[in-house]
Design a protein that fits this description.
Elements lengths: L1 H13 L5 H8 L22 H11 L3 H11 L12 H7 L11 H14 L10
Helix pairs in contact: 2-6, 4-6
């Protein structure tokens, strides 16, 4: 019986949905909304919208490789010194908690690439 449970668990883990948008939804959207918040949502936000975060990341890290590497590292090792968001955002929301134990390094890279490719364009909208 233990062998069957182990095999089922391994199968499910190996066939987990690793599409970038799904990973973002599962791992990030609990705190970061994708779109610009409406006025009625401003008070309930627990983290800045991801489009704003990525705008600042792209301003601080000019190439895709630099930005992706930064995000993939920052989610595990966030510090005030490394933060690229506005000081008032950090004051309001605090630093992002480390995602060690919540993400694998592979998932962090997949999400970072997705974020770079889809968020942080001019005007704080989606890159499409």
């Amino acid at each position: 019986m233990k062998t069957i449970i182990l095999l089922i668990t391994l199968y499910l883990c190996s066939h987990a949905d690793t599409r970038p948008s799904t990973l973002f939804e599962q791992k990030c959207s609990i705190c970061h909304m994708q779109q610009r918040p409406h006025a009625d949502l401003m008070e309930t936000m627990v983290a800045p919208p991801i489009m704003g975060v990525m705008k600042h990341v792209k301003e601080a890290k000019p190439t895709r490789n630099e930005a992706v590497a930064f995000v993939a590292d920052y989610v595990f090792n966030p510090t005030r010194d490394k933060a690229v968001c506005q000081p008032q955002a950090i004051q309001r929301f605090g630093l992002m908690p480390s995602q060690k134990g919540n993400l694998t390094k592979e998932e962090a890279l997949i999400i970072a690439e997705y974020l770079y490719d889809n968020f942080g364009s001019r005007g704080m909208g989606r890159n499409r």
